[in-house]
Design brief:
The complex is a heterodimer of chains A (about 290) and B (about 375). With about 290 residues, chain A is an all-alpha fold. Chain A has 15 helices and no strands. The chains are: A mainly alpha (about 290), B alpha+beta (about 375). The structure holds adenosine-5'-diphosphate and magnesium ion. The site of magnesium ion has 2 residues of chain B, from helix 1. Chain B: It catalyses: ATP + H2O + polyamine-[polyamine-binding protein]Side 1 = ADP + phosphate + polyamineSide 2 + [polyamine-binding protein]Side 1.
Chain lengths: ~290, ~375
């Protein structure tokens, strides 16, 4: 070879007689092995346990139809995830829209503010909400001091508190895909709509909004799927009274040592999530929505 | 400047727009006649789009005013102006079919379903796109998109149609066809067209009047033949077609004719109609169109020179001839009647009629 710009792995491979394909697998192998040993294998075991503990059969799965508490937990899980998703979409859309259409030099700062929460632990953020929302938390104390209420309002250990804190945690996951989508939308379409007689709102509604549909759908999918399996925030702000499915699983395994039911619920959650994703795949280009963000 | 041919519809007065240090528009005043085909012509960055979008209402002027048929519209938002606009990239709504795109302005205006359907059909027929109603914009070629954008801009019977370089993205052959179609369409519907282009041939072939812009200022306004025959400044003389320039000293003037000398050479020069006679002794600049220069066998014309370069363009040849007193002169001659062999280094004779050189205003 006479060129000096061949890339090092290819050059090394040529020297040692390893094919490109060999190198490819060598690079992928560590991650692949870790994945199989620490992720796929335990998953298979969970799957097995759900059918074998305490005895072989579908006994654990019967609980899905028979057990009131499990059904309640599933309903709560879906409801909290749905409400969180809806609120995140509305708020996230507004934030993304502001960032890409404000036309000033604040864009960088605004982007940083969206990403900032990623650097703070979810645990800490959830505790912060407890400080704010508790019976003698900042909000209740202030309202009482202002004379607006007499007794503290229950703002946590209920779905309100859980949803509020979850929206806070999930918002960046809604903003990022929508922002990526809006970034690619040319301003000229809205101008054209205005020029053709549409009011500011008309241009937004008929021309801009339809173009942001892919962003909205991928944000919805991302937030909903993450919310379904969310643990820390519901556990802390629900205070044991808003049992979402992941907390229910923890409870079964840690407190009651009922591995069979816990595993069954894990498998159920996995299947439900897969169903949601497959259903969404009819509307969203998943590869684009989940892998090619930013 | 030529007089307004028809009753004025739109007035632009002292329009000024700055972007930081850049003056995108610098005191532009203009009258546009009802039903006129007016072209804004200028090099890239001369302020054409800024002027057009200011008329459309997308660009807010720093100073100046716009009136439409006597009503001030300077502050009116774009959707209230009722102007149709064809954007530079067409801006067809990607989520709507061709028919929905054309129906959009009508839906906004709350037309009835039946009226919309009828009008969309009419407009599709007007631009010969009847078979494409249900296509998405992304499934159309550039020329087809251009037609749809035109149909959409015309569907609601706008008072004025604004077009920003609508043909610049198309290839040469298609562009020529669409120029004819646009001109035809203009004649058929009689709506005022304000057309932006940087292509001088396009401007010459289509317009009733041309406005030449440079650095946010109007250089000259006039009918195509008038602008071409009587450019006022060297910028216009060079931008619209090509020109040879001579620096001359005025010796005397009379009856539209001025006598000048360029170095040793004395020449007769044309003055624009109505221009004041220049004072003797003043220096001035003269433009000479390459196609007005004749070539002939040695001795047949006034000047003698040598061919420095020659390029064959099919119907015409471009020749650069060098003469001691005049320097290099660009000549454009029809190939079919060339009486001399055009070869580099060949001695040749050249000259022009007295009405060929034009006296310019800028020194
Ligand atoms: N939004 C803008 N911000 C800053 N400068 C601009 C903007 N729009 C136009 N300009 C400047 O104004 C001048 C005229 O621009 P434009 O009207 O687009 O010219 P043209 O359409 O003739 O090419 C240019 O120098 C351009 O850089
Ligand atoms: Mg432009």
């Amino acid at each position: 070879m006479t060129t000096t710009t061949i890339d090092p792995p290819a050059a090394a491979a040529a020297r040692r007689g390893l094919s490109d394909r060999g190198w490819y697998w060598l690079f992928v192998a560590p991650a692949l092995i870790a994945m199989v040993v620490f992720y796929i294998w335990p998953l298979v075991q969970i799957f097995g346990i759900s059918f074998t503990e305490p005895e072989f059969g579908l006994g654990n799965y019967a609980a899905l139809v028979e057990s009131r508490p499990i059904q309640t937990s599933l309903v709560i899980t879906f409801r909290v995830a749905a409400v969180t998703t809806l609120l995140c979409l509305v708020l996230g859309y507004m934030v993304s829209y502001a960032i890409y259409n404000a036309q000033h030099r604040m864009v960088g700062v605004m982007l940083a503010l969206v990403l900032l929460p990623f650097w703070i632990s979810v645990l800490i953020r959830s505790f912060a909400w407890i400080v704010l929302l508790g019976r003698s938390g900042v909000v209740n104390d202030s309202l009482i001091a202002l004379g607006l209420i007499e007794k503290p309002i229950a703002m946590m250990h209920n779905e309100f508190g859980v949803v509020l804190a979850m929206v806070h945690v999930m918002l960046p996951f809604a903003v990022l895909p929508m922002m990526a989508n809006m970034k690619g939308i040319n301003r000229a379409y809205v101008d054209a709509a205005r020029g053709l007689g549409a009011s500011e709102f008309g241009a937004f509604w008929h021309v801009y909004l339809p173009q942001t549909k892919p962003g909205i759908l991928s944000a919805a999918l991302l937030v909903f799927v993450l919310s379904l399996g969310f643990y820390i925030t519901p556990a802390l702000l629900g205070g044991g009274r808003v049992l979402m499915i992941s907390e229910y699983i923890t409870y079964q395994i840690q407190e009651l040592l009922r591995w069979g039911v816990g595993s069954m619920l894990s498998v159920t959650l996995l299947v439900m999530t897969a169903v949601v994703i497959l259903a969404a795949a009819r509307f969203v280009n998943l590869r684009k929505a989940l892998l090619e963000r930013g | 400047m030529s007089e307004m041919p028809i009753q004025p519809l739109l007035h632009v007065r002292e329009a000024t727009k700055r972007y930081g240090e850049v003056r995108a528009l610098d005191g532009v005043s203009l009258e546009i006649g009802d039903g006129e085909f007016l072209t804004l012509l200028g090099p890239s960055g001369s302020g054409k789009t800024t002027l057009l979008t200011a008329i459309a209402g997308f660009t807010e002027l720093d100073a100046g005013s716009l009136t439409l048929g006597g009503t001030e519209i300077t502050q009116m938002p774009p959707d209230k102006r009722d102007f149709g606009m064809v954007f530079q990239g067409y801006a067809l709504f990607p989520t709507m079919t061709v028919a929905k795109n054309i129906a959009f302005p009508l839906k906004i205006r709350k037309w009835s379903r039946a009226d919309i359907d009828r009008r969309v059909k009419e407009c599709l027929a007007l631009v010969q796109m009847e078979d494409y109603a249900e296509r998405m914009p992304s499934q159309l070629s550039g020329g087809q998109q251009q037609r749809v954008a035109l149909a959409r801009a015309l569907s609601f019977h706008p008072k004025v149609l604004l077009l920003d370089e609508p043909l610049s993205a198309l290839d040469k052959k298609l562009r020529a066809d669409l120029q004819w179609e646009l001109k035809d369409l203009h004649r058929k519907i009689g709506v005022t067209f304000i057309y932006v282009t940087h292509d001088q041939e396009e401007a010459l072939s289509m317009s009733d009047r041309i406005v030449i812009l440079e650095s946010g200022r109007i250089q000259q306004i006039g009918e195509p033949d008038e602008l071409y025959a009587h450019p006022r400044t060297s910028f216009v003389a060079d931008f619209l077609g090509k020109s040879n320039f001579f620096e001359v000293t005025v010796r005397g003037a009379g009856a539209g004719q001025v006598t000048c000398t360029a170095g040793e050479v004395e020449m007769q020069v044309q003055q624009r109609n109505g221009a004041a006679a220049p004072a003797a002794g003043r220096t001035a600049r003269v433009a000479l169109r390459p196609e007005r220069v004749r070539l002939g066998p040695c001795g047949s014309e006034r000047f003698s020179g040598t061919i420095r370069q020659h390029s064959y363009l099919g119907e015409r040849s471009q020749v650069i001839v060098e003469n001691e007193a005049l320097g290099r002169v660009l000549v454009s001659c029809p190939t079919w009647k060339s009486q001399v062999e055009l070869r580099q280094g060949q001695p040749i004779s050249f000259g022009w009629d007295d009405d060929a050189p034009i006296l310019l205003d800028d020194a």
